[in-house]
Design a protein that fits this description.
Layout (H helix, E strand, L loop, with lengths): L7 E6 L5 E6 L6 E6 L9 E5 L5 E6 L5 E6 L4 E8 L6 E2 L3 E5 L6 H5 L4 E3 L6 E3 L19 H4 L2
Length: about 150
């Protein structure tokens, strides 16, 4: 993503396109950062702000750009921070834990960008979780596609 000696990966543009949230290992742990998007290939990030105080992954923006969600690996939890990118300096509020995954966030979910997402209003979360604990019955999942088309 960026022209640097560090690994930077899964990036997400803010809804207004001015900021980019991404994960970097520049401090040794993977952490969530936000930088101003310059649009210039190979440009160094401007106004970089660290969002996750500890290890963080999977940054996601709320649809209005007022909140950023991420997975806090050290807490096994989904976190949210209020953000303000309306000025020249990106401002981040204190992180707050929304809920813990209880060790059930899939290993795949922690290593890819596409298995945890937030609805634009920030009210619902979709995450790939590991199966039920041993001894519990597995609940089936039904996925219906093109449901509007089948109602005609």
């Amino acid at each position: 993503m960026l022209d640097s000696e560090f690994d930077e990966f899964p990036a997400a543009f803010s809804p207004d396109g001015r900021w980019i949230a991404y994960v970097s290992n520049e401090t040794g742990d993977s952490a969530v950062y936000v930088s101003r998007f310059t649009g210039t290939p190979g440009a160094r990030p401007r106004g970089k702000v660290r969002v996750s105080p500890g290890p963080g992954l999977l940054p996601r923006w709320r649809g209005d750009g007022g909140e950023l969600f991420y997975y806090a690996a050290d807490e096994d939890a989904l976190m949210a921070v209020s953000v303000d990118g309306s000025g020249d300096v990106f401002q981040v509020g204190p992180p707050r834990q929304l809920f813990r995954f209880g060790g059930r966030l899939s290993g795949l979910a922690r290593s890819t960008d596409y298995v945890c997402d937030v609805t634009p209003d920030g009210e619902r979360i979709l995450a790939l979780l590991s199966g039920p604990d041993e001894g519990e019955g597995a609940e089936p999942i039904t996925v219906v596609s093109n449901w509007l088309g089948s109602a005609r």
